[in-house]
């Protein structure tokens, strides 16, 4: 009976619930599937979250207006139906009842949009799809959560009541703007509760913590811990708890103080960044804080900015240095007033500490100063020797010492100038030349030194720049020294002219033939008057001829130039000359030369026979024990070249065995000494002088060194290097560089001068 009663009661309850459910009718439509009006809006279904069931729980009934005429089947689509989360909402296909199958969570999804469908059995769609919006109603199921725990903050110890310290915040996941998420803050406790249990107060809405009472003291209490409560429902709902830790920081309530209030120092003049003084200070605030670190300032005694003050690495020391050179002659004493402060302003009014620094400037020996440091003058290049050029002096800045300045010239590369060491008067020592390689852009520079007579002398420098004015001291010259022309229908030759002088002393030029050149040549200037057109007007035999030309510049300064003209047996511009050594001699000359050569060979043969005969009459040992020159000396074993395995020293004795006695150094030669030519005065004959004396030396048995074989070592045969026997003192040396002998010492210098044509 009880079971039947319960079932009956539950059935009645379900019937009552069903009868009380709202009914959603499909909008009326004309024509079945025609589009419904835009202004037809189905109100959303509000359904609370966290429902307790039983599930499935009825939500609403969907109904078609045509359900009385035909059988209607209902269905739903959309998120929560046939889309994730699938099966959250279901519908009875026959009755149209919409169910929720499990509790909803607004924090996960606060709204669902479904489409309801009504289909007539056997007739297709009976209604257009209807949009159903299920809005989840928020419940207070989330308590506030602090954004961090603990909160960290600082407060200066000198803070006043009402000063902001820090802000705490908490969030609530419930619906924003509702009472479920309206959080209020409260300070539950303060640790330590000194000097007052309410040193801080919190704004219940914003969570801003402020100072509530005076008495913060970093030296006594360094840190406070506050217990904070956050509650929703405007402070009457769910609660959570957190901490706020507040550190009391140091305030600049102690002024830095100089350890010594006054200093007296000495600094040498003319030095920049020179250390003047270091000034230590003390500060009672927290070490290494901004209220403890110091800054310094010179407030009086330095209007010209000659000094600089900075903070030392320890932050408790002021360092004064020189920012500009001090001048003893201008001011030998400075009195500076220096103040010290912290990096941050004082928290309370405090007196500023000051120090006085007396700086005595030390006098040092300064170098004389030229005025101007770079002096430029303009002078003609042809000033006579020993003429005054300019007076260039320096003054000694050390006026109190009354020192004397002496002068000297340095870097006078051309050696043109001299200076009076006492007066500074610069004179011309040797002729100046604007066209010299030492002159750049018509300017010649020298450095002048001025030195005082102090115990440790100081030297100043000045630069003298002489702009040399050009004078007509260089005659024009012809660049070409040799030409070749044909003796028939000769082509004119263009000769270029060079004049080292500048404009006004050079072109236009004039030219005149000199001597015998007038009869065979013509010379005239080209159209620009800068080149000579030389033409052969007479047909000459082939050979070398000398053409003398006098070239004058615009002012008539002239110089005769010699041109070596090779006249060839040809025509026009096609100049082809045969070998001069053959073309210049006739048949008789050639025969005479051949006869002289044969006679020389015959005399040489007779001389050789005479020497052999003399050697047969008197035999002397070729090598004497005291003949140091011809002995074999072993200096070192250096290898035998490419083939040094077999050493046959007999090869080296072949020449010794056949050496004539006349070349012995221990026997006086019996041949007559040849005659040597004296050195010619004309440099053009130096070639013949060398050839003649070379031949005489070759035939002079008394001339050292004797032409004997000196045995040093045998280095093998088959070497790739050339044989030393190819050296012949009488061979031509036109292709030799005899200047290399200058590096071998004084004994070879004479040989270099003789063969190389040196001036000595």
From TrEMBL:
Q: Membrane topology for this entry?
A: Single-pass type I membrane protein
Residue ranges, compositional bias (Low complexity) = 721-733
What SMART domains would the database entry show?
CA (SM00112)
A Gene Ontology cellular component where this protein is annotated is:
catenin complex
Sequence segments annotated as region (Disordered)? 720-740
* CDD domains assigned: Cadherin_repeat (cd11304)
Q: Which UniProt keywords apply?
A: Calcium, Cell adhesion, Cell junction, Cell membrane, Cytoplasm, Endosome, Glycoprotein, Golgi apparatus, Membrane, Metal-binding, Repeat, Signal, Transmembrane, Transmembrane helix
Query: Is Glycosyltransferase one of the keywords UniProt gives this record?
Result: no
- MF (Gene Ontology): beta-catenin binding; cadherin binding; calcium ion binding
Q: Where does it reside?
A: Cell junction, Adherens junction; Cell membrane; Cytoplasm; Endosome
Q: Where is the signal peptide?
A: 1-20
- The transmembrane segments are 585-611
**GO BP annotations listed:** adherens junction organization; calcium-dependent cell-cell adhesion via plasma membrane cell adhesion molecules; cell migration involved in gastrulation; cell morphogenesis; cell-cell adhesion mediated by cadherin; cell-cell junction assembly; convergent extension involved in gastrulation; ectoderm development
Report the residue ranges that make up the Cadherin domain in this protein. Answer: 64-146, 147-258, 259-370, 371-478
Q: What does this protein do?
A: Cadherins are calcium-dependent cell adhesion proteins.
Protein name (Swiss-Prot/TrEMBL): Cadherin-1
Organism of derivation: Oncorhynchus mykiss (Rainbow trout)
């Amino acid at each position: 009976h009880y079971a039947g009663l319960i079932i009956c009661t539950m059935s009645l309850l379900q019937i009552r619930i069903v009868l009380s459910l709202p009914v959603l009718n499909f909008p009326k439509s004309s024509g079945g599937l025609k589009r419904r009006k835009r202004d037809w809006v189905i109100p959303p279904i509000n359904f609370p979250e966290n429902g307790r069931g039983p599930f499935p729980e009825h939500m609403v009934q969907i109904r078609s207006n045509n359900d009385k005429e035909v059988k209607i089947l209902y269905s739903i689509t959309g998120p929560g139906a046939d889309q994730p989360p699938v099966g959250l909402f279901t519908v009875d296909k026959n009755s149209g009842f919409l169910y929720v199958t499990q509790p909803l969570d607004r924090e996960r999804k606060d709204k669902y949009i479904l489409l309801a469908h009504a289909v007539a059995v056997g007739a297709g769609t009976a209604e257009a799809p209807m949009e159903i919006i299920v809005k989840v109603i928020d419940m207070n199921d989330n308590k506030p959560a602090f954004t961090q725990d603990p909160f960290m903050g600082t407060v200066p110890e000198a803070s006043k009541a009402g000063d902001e310290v820090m802000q705490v915040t908490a969030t609530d996941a419930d619906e924003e703007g509702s009472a479920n998420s309206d959080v209020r803050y409260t300070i539950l406790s303060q640790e330590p509760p000194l000097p007052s249990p309410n040193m801080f107060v919190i704004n219940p809405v914003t969570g801003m913590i402020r100072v509530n009472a005076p008495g913060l003291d970093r030296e006594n209490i360094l840190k406070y811990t506050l217990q904070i409560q956050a509650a929703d429902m405007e402070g009457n709902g769910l609660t959570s708890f957190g901490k706020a830790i507040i550190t009391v920081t140091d305030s600049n309530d102690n002024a830095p103080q100089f350890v010594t209030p006054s200093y007296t120092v000495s600094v040498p003049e003319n030095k920049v960044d020179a250390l003047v003084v270091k000034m230590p200070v003390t500060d009672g605030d927290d070490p290494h804080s901004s209220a403890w670190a110091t800054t310094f300032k010179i407030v009086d005694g330095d209007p010209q900015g000659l000094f600089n003050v900075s903070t030392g690495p320890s932050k408790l020391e002021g360092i004064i240095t020189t920012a500009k050179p001090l001048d003893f002659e201008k001011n030998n004493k400075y009195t500076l007033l220096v103040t010290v402060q912290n990096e941050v302003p004082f928290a309370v009014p405090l007196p500023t500490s000051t120090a006085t620094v007396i700086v005595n400037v030390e006098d040092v020996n300064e170098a004389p100063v030229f005025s101007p440091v770079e002096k430029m003058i303009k002078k003609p290049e042809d000033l006579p020797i020993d003429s005054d050029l300019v007076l260039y002096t320096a003054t000694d800045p050390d006026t109190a010492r009354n020192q004397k300045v002496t002068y000297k010239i340095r870097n006078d590369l051309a050696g043109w100038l001299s200076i009076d060491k006492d007066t500074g008067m610069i004179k011309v020592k040797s002729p100046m030349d604007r066209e010299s390689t030492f002159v750049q852009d018509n300017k010649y520079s020298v450095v002048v030194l001025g030195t005082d007579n102090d115990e440790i002398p100081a030297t100043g420098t000045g630069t003298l720049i002489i702009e040399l004015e050009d004078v007509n001291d260089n005659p024009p010259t012809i660049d070409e020294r040799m030409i070749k022309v044909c003796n028939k229908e000769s082509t004119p030759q263009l000769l270029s002219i060079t004049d080292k002088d500048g404009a006004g002393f050079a072109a236009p030029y004039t030219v005149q033939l000199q001597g015998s050149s007038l009869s065979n040549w013509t010379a005239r200037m080209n159209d620009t008057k800068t080149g000579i057109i030389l033409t052969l007007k007479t047909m000459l035999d082939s050979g070398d001829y000398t053409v003398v030309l006098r070239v004058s510049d615009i002012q008539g300064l002239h110089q005769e130039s010699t041109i070596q003209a090779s006249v060839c047996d040809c025509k026009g511009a096609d100049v082809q000359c045969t070998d001069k050594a053959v073309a210049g001699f006739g048949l008789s000359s050639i025969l005479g030369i051949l006869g002289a050569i044969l006679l020389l060979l015959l005399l040489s043969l007779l001389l050789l026979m005479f020497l052999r005969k003399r050697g047969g009459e008197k035999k002397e040992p070729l090598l004497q024990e005291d003949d140091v020159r011809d002995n074999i000396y072993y200096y070192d074993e250096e290898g035998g070249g490419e083939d040094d395995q077999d050493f046959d020293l007999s090869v080296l004795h072949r020449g010794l065995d056949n050496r004539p006695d006349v070349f012995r150094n221990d026997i006086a030669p019996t041949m007559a000494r040849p005659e040597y030519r004296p050195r010619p005065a004309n440099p053009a004959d130096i070639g013949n002088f060398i050839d003649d004396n070379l031949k005489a030396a070759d035939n002079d048995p008394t001339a050292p060194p004797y032409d004997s074989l000196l045995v040093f070592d045998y280095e093998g045969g088959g070497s790739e290097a050339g044989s030393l026997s190819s050296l012949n003192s009488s061979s031509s040396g036109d292709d030799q560089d005899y200047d290399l002998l200058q590096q071998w010492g004084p004994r070879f210098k004479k040989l270099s001068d003789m063969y190389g044509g040196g001036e000595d």
